[in-house]
Input
Amino acid sequence: MFIAACIVPLGLLKAAKVGSGTNHALIVGINGYNQWPALKSPVKDAQRLADTLAKKYNFSKSNITLLTDKTKDKPTLINILTAIEGYLGELGENDNLLIFFAGQSFEDDEGETYWIPIDGKKKSKLTWLKHSTIISEYLGSKDFKAKSLLILADSHFSSKLVRARSISLTPYDLRYPEKIVEKASRRSREVIALGDQHWPGSTGTDNFGLFTYYLDKALNENELEIIDFENLIFDENIFLPIQKIAGTRLVQGRLRKTKMDKGGQFIIARLAPAVLIDVVESTVSPEKGYPGDPYTVTARTSTAASEVYFNVNNKRQPCRALVPSGRSKVRLNVSARPLSPSRPSTATNSQVKPLQAT
Output
């Protein structure tokens, strides 16, 4: 018998419990450009972030605006600006807005930075999204009433627009939940950005962009019911690999040219905390085989579970399915690593171990 942690849907945590208001998100991912080099992962990155926020955190799908190459409304200059402008009249003082952008960006000789919409022209800055203008006219203005704003940019973002500031409160504080909820009651205008061009995906990041891969890793591995984005991302296992691989320093802080920031925090709540469930039976079939042969790992849980994770060849592999009853089985195809170059490899229950899921 193995002990594994499987996620059980427990329902939406009440917003009043965390005091975080209503969360909204504008998520933009652009692969294909007419006049700029094409990218491979931003569309996939944007879709993954939207899915994770809706399925695992207190973001209603109806409050997430997704603009990618594949959506009905494309991420054009007009559509992105229209979405941002719409939040000025739509969001109230108890609402929060997360803006995520993955795509081409540019920094000019004066240090001005821009997002490039899907219809941006290579030689016309008028067709780009200038960050200083977005802030002065929209997100930093007094007409933007939302309590919390967080810009997550897998792109350039000028440090001239950001006042460096980091949170001193950490989840290791025994009163962290109480204190972070109090901070979340105040207005905030935060920025966390890669600070460079989008870093493309690779096999090591499951073909997600570097920034999104570690952001998604942080969101999925978080075990706290309530957490702020600064502590979520600036965990050494998240931001350090990004900086080391990309050779850049993340841009972090508060929007400089606005009086709307009052030192608050954007916090999020998990829809369901991790719950331990017994895996009462697990088998590997066949027991022997050659490198590259498919194996089936079968697990039976003691109660209904929506996710099970296994450690296969020292790599965490998700086995996702909604299990209607405790007697249902979840199967995962894997390839075993050979024990020696000349002998068939043997997959055993000691080699394929359930892991704690988050």
User: Anything to note?
Assistant: Residues 169 and 176 are 7 Å apart (CA to CA). The two ends are 21 Å apart (CA to CA). The longest helix spans residues 42-56. The domain at 12-269 is CATH 3.40.50.1460 (Rossmann fold).
